[in-house]
Each structure stands twice: as C-alpha cells, then as structure tokens.
C-alpha cells in the first residue's frame, strides 16, 4: 500500500512493512482502557532544556487523550512490530471493526507520525558489509 505523502522518504516501501516506535511517554487516563499521551510542552532544543524542567509537574506536558482503540494500538507499538502486524492484531482485538482495518491503521499511524508522536523506520534490515582484508 503506497501513500503519496511518504514517497520521498520511503520510496518503493509498502507502508504495512514499516515499524513504528514511540517518541513520547503515556500515562493511564481516568478509564483504564484509555491512555493519555504526554507531549512535552516545549520541544524546541533550547526552550526544552531551559524551561521544561522548571515547570510544575502538571504543566510540563500536554496530555493528549486516546480512545480505547487508539490506546490499544499505542500499547502494541514497541518498535518491533510492523504496521501490518498491528493491523492483524487490531482485527483480532476488535472483531466488530474489521472494515478497512489496514487503511485506518495506516492513516492513524501516519497522523501520529506527522504530529511527532511516533517515528517510522523500514523493517528491512540490510546485512552488515563484510570488511575486505
């Protein structure tokens, strides 16, 4: 599945073969099935280093709430599973929402990545180049 906004970065790569990894932490919300993503208030290298530690604990982060499906997906993102594996797991965990699962998961992961909450890398690992003696 090719996505037009990723052509330059992941050219000739299927989006379902990409591996998402978390960039921010999370905490449980008021409902155990819902998580809150902790987005640092200042992400700038200078302001983040100077101002972020000086803020009060409850003001350091912007809390982004996730719905139960997004919370499930966030807990499954570990930097090892591909987007395709996440879609298969989502299909098993939420059998009522099986319509267009791959497309929905791809759009959700792309939105999280564009907001700086996830990073994506290719699941294809290149073998180490042997040193020539």
Features:
flat, 5 strands, two-stranded antiparallel ribbon, alpha+beta, 133 residues, Outer Surface Protein A, domain 3
What does this structure look like?
By secondary structure, this protein is of the alpha+beta class. Helix content is 30%, strand content 19%. It contains 4 helices and 5 strands, in the order βββαβαααβ. The strands form 2 sheets. A 3-stranded antiparallel β-sheet has the order 2-3-4, with helices on one face. Strands 1-5 form a two-stranded antiparallel ribbon. It starts with 17 loop residues before the first strand and ends in an 11-residue tail after the last strand. The mean pLDDT is 81.
Set out the fold topology:
Blueprint: E1 18-22, E2 25-28, E3 35-40, H1 45-50, E4 61-65, H2 68-76, H3 83-93, H4 101-114, E5 118-122
Antiparallel strand pairs: 1-5, 2-3, 3-4
Helix pairs in contact: 3-4
Produce a short descriptive summary.
With 133 residues, the protein is α+β, with helices and mostly antiparallel strands. The chain has helices at residues 45-50, 68-76, 83-93, 101-114, and strands at 18-22, 25-28, 35-40, 61-65, 118-122.
- Strand order of the biggest β-sheet: 2-3-4
Poorly predicted sequence stretches spanning 5 or more consecutive residues: none
Q: Return the structural class.
A: alpha+beta
Number of E-type strands: 5
CATH class: Alpha Beta
Count of the separate structural domains: 1
CATH architectural category: Alpha-Beta Complex
Let me know the largest β-sheet. 3 strands, antiparallel
Task: Tell me the span between the first and last alpha carbons.
Answer: 42 Å
Give the helix tally: 4
At the third CATH level, what is the topology name?
Answer: Outer Surface Protein A, domain 3
CA-based shape: flat
Rg result: 18 Å
Mean pLDDT: 81
- Into which percent range does the helicity of residues fall? 25-40%
Q: Kindly estimate the percentage of residues that lie in beta strands according to DSSP.
A: 15-25%
Please trace the helix and strand order, writing H or E for each element: EEEHEHHHE
């Amino acid at each position: 599945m090719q996505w037009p906004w990723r052509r330059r970065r992941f050219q000739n790569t299927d989006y379902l073969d990409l591996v998402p990894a978390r960039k921010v932490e999370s905490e449980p919300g008021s409902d155990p099935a819902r998580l809150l993503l902790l987005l640092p208030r200042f992400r700038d290298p200078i302001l983040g280093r100077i101002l972020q530690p000086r803020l009060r604990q409850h003001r350091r982060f912007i809390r982004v709430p996730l719905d139960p499906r997004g919370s499930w997906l966030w807990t499954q993102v570990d930097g090892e599973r591909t987007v395709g594996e996440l879609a298969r797991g989502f299909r098993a965990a939420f059998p009522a929402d099986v319509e267009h699962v791959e497309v929905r998961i791809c759009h959700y992961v792309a939105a999280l990545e564009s907001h700086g909450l996830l990073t994506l890398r290719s699941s294809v690992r290149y073998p180490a180049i042997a040193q020539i003696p």
